[in-house]
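Quick one, probably user error.
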């Protein structure tokens, strides 16, 4: 009996959906998260759709305000990776049977808070009832200078790989939220949980990457996976130095207690930080842009001829652990 491997998310997109977008240049072959639509002589419109599902992308008992924030922020993270400034969004809300108006009221309150925080406003959408779990889909729109939108393709051999913020907090935070890190102090567990529940899209940095970065991605599927997506779209290999990956104090403590958590840190995802391909000559410009955005950036690797992701630690090659979150 011959077993058939189920295709993964990106293979599925490349096989069935990328051909449908072939005649539209702004789709970029569906190799990046954003599409870019001509708007006027000065700007393109960046468009991004994301769906989050209860029990898959957030905990089933999550507070409605936090569900709202996460749904919006994961889209804003992709717009940031595209160099876009957000301005409007649409909401599709699929409510489970037995939904309550009080839940929707709190959900809307969470959206309102983030609208003020990120300078974006609702412009439409749809609301339905579903026999399945709560599902939230947001399509966010941003402005980017004409033909300057950033995507995964564009890195060159010799470019440096940089990461914003700290990596691994969200994946470790999910473990903490599930009660699996009791050896870690309460303060650290709460910090890590918050990083999972409330991502911080790097919108202030993303808009400043125009003219500096060659390629970008947000870290949603995991550092190794998303850096690998840039490499694959750019037809290159990426070399990552594990010892340079920026870690929070809480994640360092978690790793000290259990070094077996490294695959989760590098592959767990949900960080919504940015990984950035930059020419060495533009590294100082990146550092200055990050300072203006009040975000730390760290050089963690480089791009080279070849294919795939290569990981080193303590100067030697190590096996690449869990590649990242996969939907199928």
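Nope, works fine. Designed sequence:
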């Amino acid at each position: 009996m011959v077993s058939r491997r189920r295709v993964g998310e990106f293979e599925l997109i490349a096989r069935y959906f990328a051909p449908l977008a072939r005649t539209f240049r702004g789709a970029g072959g569906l190799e990046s998260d954003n599409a870019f639509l001509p708007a006027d002589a000065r700007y393109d419109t960046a468009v991004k759709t994301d769906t989050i599902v209860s029990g898959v992308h957030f905990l089933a008992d999550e507070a409605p305000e936090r569900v709202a924030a996460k749904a919006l922020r994961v889209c804003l993270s992709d717009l940031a990776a595209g160099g876009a400034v957000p301005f409007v969004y649409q909401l599709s809300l699929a409510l489970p049977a037995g939904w309550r108006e009080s839940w929707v009221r709190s959900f809307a309150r969470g959206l309102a808070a983030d609208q003020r925080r990120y300078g974006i406003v609702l412009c439409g959408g749809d609301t339905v009832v579903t026999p399945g779990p709560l599902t939230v889909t947001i399509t966010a729109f941003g402005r980017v200078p004409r033909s300057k939108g950033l995507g995964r393709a564009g890195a060159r051999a010799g470019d440096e790989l940089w990461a914003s913020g700290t990596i691994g907090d969200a994946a470790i935070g999910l473990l903490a939220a599930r009660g699996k890190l009791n050896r870690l102090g309460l303060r650290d567990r709460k910090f890590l949980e918050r990083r999972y529940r409330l991502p911080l899209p790097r919108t202030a940095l993303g808009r400043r990457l125009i003219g500096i970065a060659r390629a970008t991605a947000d870290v949603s599927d995991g550092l190794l996976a998303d850096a690998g997506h840039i490499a694959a779209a750019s037809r290159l290999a990426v070399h990552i130095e594990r010892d340079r990956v920026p870690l929070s104090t809480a994640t360092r403590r978690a790793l000290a207690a259990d070094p077996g958590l490294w695959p989760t840190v590098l592959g767990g995802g949900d960080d919504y930080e940015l990984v950035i391909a930059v020419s060495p000559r533009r590294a100082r410009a990146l550092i200055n842009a990050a300072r203006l955005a009040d975000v730390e950036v760290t050089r963690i690797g480089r791009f080279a001829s070849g294919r795939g992701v290569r990981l080193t630690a303590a100067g030697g090659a190590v096996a690449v652990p869990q590649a990242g979150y996969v939907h199928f």
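The two ends are 22 Å apart (CA to CA).
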